Amino acid sequence: MKKALMIVSVLMIAVISTACINNIAVQELNNKAAEFMQKGDYESAMNRLQASLDLDSTMYETYYNLGVAAISAHKFEKAIEALEGGIKIKPDYADFYYSLGIAQSELADEILAKADEENSKPEEKNDNVNENNPLMEADKRVEVSEEKAKAIEYKKASVENLNKYLGMNPNTEDKETIEALIQESNSFINGDDIQSKAE
Known about the structure:
mainly alpha, Serine Threonine Protein Phosphatase 5, Tetratricopeptide repeat, 82% helix, globular, disordered C terminus
C-alpha cells in the first residue's frame, strides 16, 4: 500500500511539475510575442502565440492576441480562426467580437479586391479562342459573382459581430466609427454601393 501511495505521489508531482513548466513556457512565449508585436514583426508574434496555444489551448487571451497579430499581418482567415477559437472559451469577452468583425470585413474587402484585379487583367492572347467568346465572359461573371457572394457572407458576419460588440459595450469610445463600418457593410450587402456607382 505504501508503495502504491508513493508511486501515486511521484506521478502527481510529475504532473504538477509539467504543468508549472508549461505555464512558464507559455508565459515566455506570450512575452516574446508581445515584444515582436511592439516591433511590428507580426509573423514572429503569430508563431510564438501559436506555439503557446499548442502548449495550453485554454488561455483565451492567447487566442485574442493571435487574432490581433494575424489582423495586423493581413492574415484575415487565420485571425478569424483564432478569434472564433477564443470565443468558444470565453464568449462574454466583447473584444473578440470587435476584432472578429474587423477581420471578417477586411477579408471581404480583400476578396473583392482580388476579384477586381483578376477581372481587370488583360486576357492572354490565344489564337484558338475568339476574343468575343460569350462563354468566357459568362465564366468570368460567375467567378466574380461567387467571390461577391463570399464577400457578402463575410460582411454579414462582420455586421453581426460588430453589433454584438456594441450590445456588450454600448458606451465604447469608437461607437461612431463602428456604426459607420456597419452602415458601410450593410450598404454593400444591400447592393447600394453598386447602384451608386452605376449612376
